[in-house]
Amino acid sequence: MTSKELLCTAACTNRCTCAIPPSASTSSTAICVPPSRTSIQSITLTIHLDGLSKEESLRYIDGRLRHCGNSTPVLTKNALELTHQASADIMRDINAIAHGALMNAYLGGSPQVEAEHVKAAIKR
User: Fold this and answer.
1) Could you read off the pLDDT of 36-90 as tens digits, one per residue?
2) Is domain 54-123 in CATH 3.30.310.180, yes or no?
3) List of E strands, 2-96
4) What are the boundaries of each domain within the chain?
């Protein structure tokens, strides 16, 4: 069911949105929808982070895998190198590439992530 939305009138002091059902003929049948706490308290923050060095990238990937309960190396040395190079040292890109490579290895039935799995993840 869709509805029209408009800012509440003076009758409502909650700074909420009034939803008017499509079948309603007047705004007197509006339903008051209070704002969520998250929309009231939202804050935007921008932070610049320098890229990770090669050593930091490798430690970051290893740490993430250990946090998930892994105790043995999953990515080969070549896969790690390629992930670092392709990510441009950006953590978000490291995560995306590593996730894709892990999925490719799993779907291919490989117990280890090889460079070919990373290359396939990069192409996406």
Assistant:
1) 665 566 667 788 878 899 999 999 999 999 998 988 889 999 999 999 999 998 9
2) no
3) 4-7, 17-20, 31-33
4) 4-40, 54-123
